[in-house]
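Figure 3 (text version): structure tokens given as input.
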């Protein structure tokens, strides 16, 4: 596409004479409107929302992102960035706007012992493969490595090592971003700190991440993985709290695993890293009293990438995925999950559900909202509707809304990778006393409200194309 007609918001492959169309500035990449591109941009991992854009930008450079965002500001076009498409409820879609496909910005620019500089479209899987050759890796990894760096940093990036290191946003040293008003800015804790804090965990509302400098630490070569079974949910959470308190595991998660009788088994999954000397099993297991123990040693990379193939296979099925991810206050976790288990079935949970603790003090980015108190738990219901059924998906979304209301009432928050029907009022509740700062950041960095409308955080701005 080479031109845009603001009269009817159409992109054109030529510039007709005597028309109202405006020629698009030079792009190093391409702006496309073919059916396959638009269909992909209106699809995500959740397969629940399908808001079609009018065009897709495949940027050939960071300059293309700047050009597109400035053009969008001038002509009232909404813009969203799509990385690997692992949103669940249309968050990275832009109805009648432009979706930027960040996969064409995927260069690893620099690896040092302490940091990596990468484009936003780089997958963590590709970054980890490269860094491990130098004996380093990010201190935290999400369970699935097939996510883009930019997309993850917009949300947070939590994993089993967050108990020691916080989230991936807490281990980000610098960003290069394109603000909503089209400025290319490098920001960090020391330079443009307000923008830096707004963007990390900011759900794409203030700027588009185009490059990131992320922390690296020395990496082990092996992982000893402990799969520990407990008779009940409170037995599991008690063991998790003990393990969290003394930090005995390098990786700490928990699972509610389906059983043959349509119930759940309660599993603590702990990892201890090593290179030469393996951990002392007796010391690792002391005081947490599992009823079942399974121990296995695997190469560290194999452990980090353990679910990649499974997720890819599930994604190929294109199942509706009404996920719910919630942060529960420690004091309310046992009651909420115990009550949930009176009705939750493995089918409704999508199979395995996750439940694991982390420390609030390590979550340093203010846009990531966690409950008050030293400890919180992540509850993740990674639901999948199989076979696809619209009515069943709607029922599970309603269940999400009801459970989220229960979480809010107990002082909890959401980890915003969800299928929830949140209104702007609901987002104000989510941000709480942070809301005035969120409004100020929106007004400063995206004053025309062109970025990431699919999150539904702000009321859409009403404006005619071409108006200031």
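Below: residues designed for each position.
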């Amino acid at each position: 596409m080479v031109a845009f007609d603001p009269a009817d918001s159409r992109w054109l492959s030529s510039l007709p004479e005597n028309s109202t169309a405006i020629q698009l500035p030079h792009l190093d990449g391409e702006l496309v409107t073919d059916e396959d591109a638009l269909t992909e941009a209106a699809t995500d991992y959740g397969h629940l929302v399908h808001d079609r854009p009018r065009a897709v930008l495949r940027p050939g450079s960071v300059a293309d992102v700047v050009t597109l965002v400035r053009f969008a500001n001038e002509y009232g076009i909404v813009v969203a960035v799509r990385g690997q498409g692992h949103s669940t409820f249309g968050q990275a879609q832009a109805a009648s706007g432009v979706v930027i496909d960040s996969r064409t910005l995927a260069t690893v620019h620099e690896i040092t012992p302490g940091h990596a500089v990468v484009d936003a479209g780089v997958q963590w899987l590709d970054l980890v493969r490269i860094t491990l050759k130098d004996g380093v890796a990010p201190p935290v990894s999400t369970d699935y490595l097939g996510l883009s760096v930019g997309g993850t940093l917009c949300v947070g990036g939590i994993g089993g090592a967050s108990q020691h290191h916080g989230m991936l946003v807490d281990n980000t040293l610098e960003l290069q971003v394109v603000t909503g008003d089209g400025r290319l800015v490098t920001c960090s804790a020391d330079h443009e700190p307000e923008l830096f804090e707004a963007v990390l965990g900011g759900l794409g509302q203030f700027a588009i991440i185009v490059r990131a400098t992320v922390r690296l630490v020395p990496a082990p070569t092996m992982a000893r993985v402990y799969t520990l079974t407990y008779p009940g949910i409170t037995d599991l959470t008690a063991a998790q709290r003990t393990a969290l308190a003394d930090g005995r595991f390098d990786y700490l998660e928990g699972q509610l695993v389906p059983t043959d009788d349509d119930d759940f088994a309660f599993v603590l999954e702990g990892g201890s890293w090593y290179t030469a000397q393996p951990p002392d099993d007796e010391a690792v297991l002391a005081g947490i009293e599992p009823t079942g123990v399974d121990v296995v040693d695997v190469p560290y990379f194999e452990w980090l990438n353990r679910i990649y193939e499974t997720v890819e296979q599930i994604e190929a099925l294109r199942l509706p995925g009404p996920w719910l991810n919630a942060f529960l206050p420690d004091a309310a976790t046992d009651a909420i999950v115990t009550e949930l288990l009176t009705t939750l079935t493995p089918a409704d949970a999508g199979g395995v559900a996750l439940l694991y603790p982390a420390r609030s003090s390590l979550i340093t980015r203010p846009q990531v909202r966690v409950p008050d108190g030293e400890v919180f738990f992540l509850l993740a219901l990674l639901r999948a509707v199989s076979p696809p059924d619209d009515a069943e998906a709607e029922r599970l979304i309603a269940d999400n809304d009801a459970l989220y209301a229960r979480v809010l009432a107990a002082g909890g928050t959401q980890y915003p990778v969800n299928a929830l029907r949140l209104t702007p009022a609901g987002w104000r509740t989510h941000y709480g006393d942070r809301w005035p700062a969120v409004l100020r950041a929106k007004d400063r960095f995206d004053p025309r409200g062109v970025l990431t409308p699919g999150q539904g955080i702000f009321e859409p701005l009403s404006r005619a194309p071409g108006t200031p």
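Residues 45 and 86 are 5 Å apart (CA to CA).
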